Amino acid sequence: MFKRLFGAKRQTNREITDPLYGAIVAAARQPYFYSHLNVPDTPLGRFEMLSLHMFLLQHRLHGVEGQAQDIAQVLIDEFFLDVDHSLRELGISDVGVPKRMKRLAKMYYGRTAAYADALERQDDEVLVAALRRNIRPDEEWLESARLAAYVKEAVQNLSAQTLESICAGSLQFPRAGEQGQ
């Protein structure tokens, strides 16, 4: 385990995963989501968008062996370290962080299962409902269909990117708002 965390392979992966994680964060922070799609610009809303974009790349790398699998694991580890760090920045006590992390991990994996199911079934209504339930459960969220269109475009976009380019640290998400909306 210590070799994995601190070894040369881990450092080599960082040279690849840092740009990938940066692309995920940049995609999740696109202002369009918050200004036009009514995603809450709150810590939880930003967690939702970061989770969604992490899922999109994980979905692309799902079932792939070798370096891509290693990269996917490092990215998940980085995601949860980032969430942990964010909780601490929000002033959550050291005692409260593990409990919140457990809850957020459960939320992440529940969401990814719902999104994967909807995509696998190619069911737009299920995808829209999952996004609505996770991102704006408190109201009728009319923009959820537009976010679902973005998700579907992102899936197509990511599937067109070669594993070689992704494993070299290159990743492109579509620009939000350019889905013919």
In brief:
The protein is mainly α. It is 73% helix and 0% strand.
Head-to-tail CA distance between termini: 47 Å
Mean pLDDT: 86
Identify the quaternary structure here: single chain
What would you report as the Rg, rounded to the nearest angstrom? 16 Å
Overall shape:
globular
Would you identify the regions where 5 or more consecutive residues have pLDDT less than 50? none
| Proportion of residues in helical segments | over 70%
Number of strands: 0
* Helix segment tally: 9
* Order of SSEs: HHHHHHHHH
Strand content: under 5%
Biggest sheet overview: none
The helix/strand class is: mainly alpha
Organism: Aquamicrobium ahrensii
Protein name: Cytochrome b pre-mRNA-processing protein 3
Domain Ubiquinol-cytochrome c chaperone: 36-173
Pfam families: Ubiq_cyt_C_chap (PF03981)
Question: Characteristics of this structure?
Answer:
9 helices; 0% strand; Ubq_cyt-c_CBP3-rel; Ubiqinol_cyt_c_chaperone_CPB3; Cytochrome b pre-mRNA-processing protein 3; Ubiq_cyt_c_chap
SSE arrangement:
Elements: H1 2-6, H2 8-28, H3 31-35, H4 43-61, H5 67-89, H6 97-121, H7 124-135, H8 144-160, H9 163-167
Helix pairs in contact: 2-4, 2-5, 4-5, 4-6, 4-8, 5-6, 6-7, 7-8
What does this entry look like structurally?
The chain is an all-alpha fold and 181 residues long. 73% of the residues lie in helices and 0% in strands. It has helices at 2-6, 8-28, 31-35, 43-61, 67-89, 97-121, 124-135, 144-160, 163-167.
